[in-house]
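Researcher: Let's do a round of design. I'm pasting the structure tokens now; please hold your answer until I've finished.
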């Protein structure tokens, strides 16, 4: 379970702030996001199943649930620099890439392993490759560079994670910033609350539950 604040900063410097709750099960295979603020999106909910391959959205004003097209997972979530795929794929993305260890490097003040992850030919993930700096002492990724789907030499985004705390024996970044190199925008995310090892029923991650 998590409660988070998301701040979207546009290229002109204006800000939009959202607060939402989220629940995740089976290492990110099932995800439910429900917005609390601002008022215009309060009650909106997103259900992501099968590591965000299947996405439904609920709009309280119309009380309708809409199934998104398969390619929607590559789209921006609430206009942020995080795609549905970024938010809902859990750790499944590990299986979509072939890893290669590069020369160790210091990043964000941490001694890190540096890895290059190249997309497997059969994968339908949105990035051709990732460059990842992983903290040696806890194996936590502190920086991830994302490269465009059809151009492995063109960097699309960079994720920087900070304020890493141990919660329920799990290293957790309390702050994340996704920088969009193409749009000159960025999205900041701050975890306000997080709980692991809680019991979540499968019935929670259903179309019917979205309307509650």
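Researcher: That's everything. Go ahead.
Model: Designed sequence:
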């Amino acid at each position: 379970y998590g409660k988070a604040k998301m701040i979207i900063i546009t290229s002109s410097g204006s800000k939009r702030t959202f607060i939402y709750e989220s629940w995740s099960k089976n290492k990110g295979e099932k995800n439910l996001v429900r917005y609390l603020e601002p008022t215009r999106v309060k009650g909106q909910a997103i259900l992501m199943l099968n590591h965000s391959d299947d996405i439904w959205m609920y709009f309280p004003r119309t009380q309708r649930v809409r199934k998104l097209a398969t390619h929607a997972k590559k789209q921006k979530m609430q206009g942020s620099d995080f795609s549905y795929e970024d938010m809902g794929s859990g750790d499944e993305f590990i299986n979509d890439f072939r890893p290669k260890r590069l020369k160790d490097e210091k990043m964000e003040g941490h001694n890190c392993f540096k890895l290059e992850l190249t997309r497997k030919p059969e994968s339908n993930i949105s990035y051709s490759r990732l460059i990842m700096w992983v903290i040696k002492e806890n194996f936590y990724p502190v920086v991830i560079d994302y490269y465009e789907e059809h151009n492995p030499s063109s960097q699309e985004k960079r994720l920087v994670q900070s304020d890493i705390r141990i919660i329920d024996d799990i290293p957790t970044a309390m702050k994340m910033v996704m920088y969009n190199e193409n749009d000159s925008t960025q999205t900041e995310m701050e975890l306000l609350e997080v709980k692991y090892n809680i019991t979540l029923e499968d019935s929670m991650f259903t179309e019917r539950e979205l309307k509650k």
